[in-house]
Amino acid sequence: MKTNESTNSVAHMLDTVLELLQLKNDAALSRAIEVAPPVISKVRNEVQPLGSTLLVKLHEITGMSTKEIKTLAGIE
Question: How many CB atoms neighbour CB 33 within 10 A?
Answer without folding.
Answer: 19
